[in-house]
Design goal:
The protein is an alpha+beta fold. Helix content is 33%, strand content 21%. The chain has 15 helices and 18 strands. It has helices at residues 2-8, 45-58, 110-119, 136-141, 149-152, 188-191, 225-239, 251-260, 288-301, 314-325, 328-331, 349-363, 391-407, 426-429, 432-445; strands spanning 14-15, 38-40, 62-65, 82-85, 92-96, 101-105, 122-123, 159-165, 171-174, 200-207, 209-210, 214-222, 243-250, 274-282, 307-310, 338-343, 368-374, 379-385. The strands form 4 sheets. A 7-stranded antiparallel β-sheet has the order 15-12-14-13-17-18-16, sandwiched between helices. Helix 12 (349-363) packs antiparallel against helix 13 (391-407). The longest helix is centred in the C-terminal third of the chain and has 17 residues, at 391-407. The two termini are 28 Å apart. The structure holds flavin-adenine dinucleotide. Residues 63-71, 74-75, 86, 106, 128-130, 133-135, 137-139, 141-142, 144-146, 195-196, 200-201, 415-416, 419, 452, 455 line the site of flavin-adenine dinucleotide (FAD). The site of flavin-adenine dinucleotide has 36 residues, from strand 3, helix 4 and strand 10.
Length: 457
């Protein structure tokens, strides 16, 4: 079979044995990877099609991979699969300024696409911490979210068309460039967020937006959760759609940053109940900063916020974002951790934070529970470290957090997907009829079950 793959691929596209580097089995601590049969690195859609046809004929399992930055083990081989890495399919094919579209192969790295668009006065709005390694195919297949969802939506909102190869090798080219196209089912949505279980995304047409001329960033301290919610409502009402990010960090996270992350410099004093990083994206260089300053002064006067710092330079802006995104040095001191990506109605978030913290403390005195996230999108991340990494304790921590989510009518996965990590909890957020229809779709498109088996279900 390896020889047959080598005959399909152009150049050094087949890796076996010791040549399979750690990149292809890196789970980032989420699940355990097995050894794949081989890694294939195609350069074109037709090569992907030929590989899949061959695998389909003999019932060979396949795992698609992008930048391997996923956080639920979705791209990790479980053992014996053919890995198809899209890393060499990294061509930017067409930029259309009038239609505001960018057509790419799916292995283009998100940051490369960002830089390409920004040089031309546009932006691909989806942005996240893994921008340097995540690929367009990966962010489509996970329907990634990130730090601009409140303004521009998740990746789904930035995909106009795509091309995917079905498990039997059929090429489904749906490279639509229009905002409107209601001619029957919009099939692209089958592949957005389905984590490589229904098809391999090989190309895409991304929707671009004009690059904002101004970016203003502030760090705000607030005492009560009710005021955080009121502040978000206030900003949305006065900013007229310019709010780009609304990231909230609970007090425990701020204390953790001060204690365990010496390279980070919080701009406000310690002790507020919540810290909020807000960013506005505007088009009035002469007045946007002054406008945000005035809005913050009004919020202070109304008692909605207790303190605020407005970034005065790009360096300060980066330092504010580092507090939200770069706490890795602190995480590494925590020992075994369980991390969560959950969503719930915004009004329930205060209760969620209180309930999970109290419950984990009761079960594991001295444990650490950090809560932060994209609150404007109803999405929180939790990092729990209870001093033990056993499977039993991990399950107990998962059950603790997800049972609160279930009570609040939330989702066990806001943006990272299910992969292998959250399979046991899919039914805590989706009803039996919903899961049955997902499985019916999977069987219809992949009757032999060769594409990313063992993921989601
Ligand atoms: C530091 C950091 C910050 C992050 N922040 C965020 C965040 O804010 N928001 C967020 O949503 N995610 C975030 N993530 C998670 C991750 O970046 C996203 O899930 C991203 O979309 C994965 O892209 P990737 O190319 O690395 O895909 P991979 O990890 O390679 O794959 C992810 C899934 O997609 C499938 N897949 C990949 N490419 C294809 C393809 N071409 N066709 C079909 N299936 C494919 C894989 O099989 C797998 O199931 C973060 C990760 C890190 C490490």
């Amino acid at each position: 079979m390896i020889d047959a793959f080598a005959a399909i691929l152009d150049g050094p596209g087949v890796l076996t044995g010791a040549d399979i580097g750690p990149r292809y089995t890196n789970t980032r601590g989420h699940g355990v990877a097995g050894t794949p049969l081989c890694v294939l690195r195609p350069k074109s859609t037709i090569e992907v099609s030929h590989i899949l046809k061959l695998c389909h004929d003999v019932g060979q399992a396949v795992v698609p991979q992008g930048g391997m930055s996923g956080l639920v083990g979705g791209g990790a081989p479980l053992g014996g699969e053919v890995v198809i890495s899209l890393e060499r399919m990294n061509a930017i094919e067409e930029f259309d300024a009038d239609g505001r579209t960018l057509s790419v192969q799916s292995g283009v790295v998100l940051q490369t696409a960002h830089e390409y668009c920004e040089e031309r006065g546009f932006m691909l709005p989806l942005d996240l911490g893994a921008r340097g390694s995540a690929t367009i195919g990966g962010v489509i297949s996970t329907n990634a979210g990130g730090v601009r969802v409140i303004r521009y939506g998740m990746m789904r909102e930035s995909v106009l068309g795509l091309e995917a190869v079905l498990p039997d090798g059929t090429i489904l080219s749906s490279m639509n460039k229009m905002l409107k196209n209601n001619a029957g089912y919009d099939l692209k949505h089958l592949f957005i967020g389905s984590e490589g279980t229904l098809g391999i995304v090989t190309r895409a047409v991304c929707r671009l937006r004009p690059k904002p001329r101004t970016v203003n960033t502030a760090f705000v301290g607030i005492n009560d959760f009710a005021d955080v919610v009121a502040f978000l409502g206030y900003l949305e009402s006065v900013l007229g759609g310019e709010l780009g990010s609304f990231e909230v960090m609970w007090q425990g996270y701020d204390a953790f940053v001060r204690e365990r992350c010496p390279s980070l410099r919080p701009p406000l004093k310690a002790g507020y109940g919540f810290y909020v990083l807000i960013e506005t994206l505007g088009n009035q260089p002469d007045s946007d900063q002054g406008k945000l300053e005035q809005i913050l002064a009004d919020a202070l006067e109304r008692g909605l916020v207790a303190d605020a710092a407005l970034a005065q330079s790009d360096q300060q802006r980066a330092a504010f974002w580092a507090i939200r995104e770069n706490a890795g040095e602190g995480f590494r001191t925590l020992g075994p951790m369980v991390s969560f990506d959950v969503s719930m109605p915004i009004k329930s978030m205060g209760t969620f934070g209180e309930r999970i913290t109290a419950s984990l403390f009761q079960q594991y005195p001295g444990s650490t529970c950090l809560v932060l996230g994209h609150m404007g999108d109803g999405n929180l991340h939790v990092v729990a470290a209870v001093g033990s990494g056993t499977a039993e304790d991990k399950e107990r921590v998962n059950d603790t957090v997800y049972s609160v989510i279930r009570d609040l009518g939330g989702s066990v996965s806001a943006e990272h997907g299910i992969g292998t990590e959250k399979k046991d909890y899919l039914s805590w957020s989706r009803s039996p009829p919903e899961i049955a229809l997902m499985q019916t779709l999977k069987r219809a498109i992949d009757p032999k079950g060769i594409l990313n088996p063992g993921k989601i279900f």
